[in-house]
Amino acid sequence: MTAARTALVIGGGVAGPVVAMALQKAGISATVHEARTDPDEDLGAFLTLQVNGIAALRAIGAGEAVAGVGFATTSMSFRSGSGKVLGAVGTGEPLPDGTVGVTVARADLHRVLRAEAERRGLTVTYGKRLVEVREAPDGVTAVFADGTTATADILVGADGIRSRVRTAIDPNAPSARYVPVLNVGGFARVPDVDLPAGEFQMVFGKRAFFGYGPAPDGTVWWFANPPRRDEPAPGELAAMTTEQWRTWLLDLFADDRTPAARIVAATPGELRGWATYDMPPVPHWHRGRMVLVGDAAHATSPSSGQGASMAIEDAVELARCLRDHPDPETAFTAYVGLRRERVERVVAAGARSSNQKAAGPVGRVLRDLVLPIILRRAAGSGTGSLAWLHRYEIDWDAPVAAPVPA
Ligand SMILES: Cc1cc2nc3c(=O)[nH]c(=O)nc-3n(C[C@H](O)[C@H](O)[C@H](O)COP(=O)(O)OP(=O)(O)OC[C@H]3O[C@@H](n4cnc5c(N)ncnc54)[C@H](O)[C@@H]3O)c2cc1C
Questions:
Q1: Average model confidence (pLDDT) for the chain?
Q2: CATH label of the domain that carries residue 299
């Protein structure tokens, strides 16, 4: 196959704009095609971008894009619902200039990444839902739901956990896997909640998990993970009213010695909830001129706190591979070689963490005994340390080795 000079990027979430910027730096001209029609749609949730994600953005000179959003978050402190302290973990050693992880609304992260891509002359087009991919010997064509098409040398699937590109690559690819907790969250002003700056409080409540942290403007940002064994029916959660969510959450947190119930009660506006999913291992991340990045290849449960950072790392590594290996198939193979082990380790850790949140009575006792040990190790530098996760530096200029033949 001839070297890629042009690329279609499907999906304008976290990975999409970053992959387009990274490809541009590698000399490949890319356009981003996003299904949503409203660029400023409220995406509801917030996430923590950890230092490895910020470092990956810096590898392509885009670190400044996230410097002004959200708020610094250095650590997460864990307790049980009875108030027992279980331990704490950091969001990664600060980068050399002191930068730490940030908590940011998903919509804001999308917005600043898109703005940075557009500042570099890249185009993100909305209302372009990919429905079909047509392959030809000399290129690949994306067919969108509005009947339009676009053609380029390669197509990058940055289209998230329900990826259409994934099934274009492999019709037998696995689908998203239900993780047995729900997600709901909000923003509240609550008097008399004592919160150290930069720290998220994570509580394994008696009946549900609750996380909350202080934004500099005095708002408490929170999320809850009510356990739920079976996958909700389509539309079931969307049909729940704000009052139903509130009543349920207040009941779930009634017996915990934490401010969870007060925070939920003080939250104005609408409450919305989601089911949680991750991806089982996806055997084929690429075929022909198509390749996957981010959640499309390896969505992790939000409990890992790493989905966005992994998507950004993928984007940068893929571009390095395409820069150094003119044949796209060779580049894609090198990219998978760089990424698969790391991201699948993250997905597995995220699944373990979500299962701990959904533990039954016996599991809860075991968890409260074992978790302090795990958290101590995670915060240290020996076995069980999280250094492998946070200290991942991409050297943009370093050449990518040729993949080892299978
Ligand atoms: C509640 C919640 C909390 C989370 N917390 C964290 C956290 O603390 N830390 C963290 O790092 N991550 C967290 N995540 C995960 C994080 O949001 C994802 O891992 C990250 O957004 C992945 O980026 P992506 O670009 O691969 O996918 P997305 O950001 O989902 O982007 C995919 C884009 O593709 C578009 N698309 C889909 N189908 C098509 C199509 N057919 N045609 C065109 N476009 C299409 C979608 O509209 C979307 O904009 C959380 C996720 C959720 C839901």
A1: 92
A2: 3.50.50.60
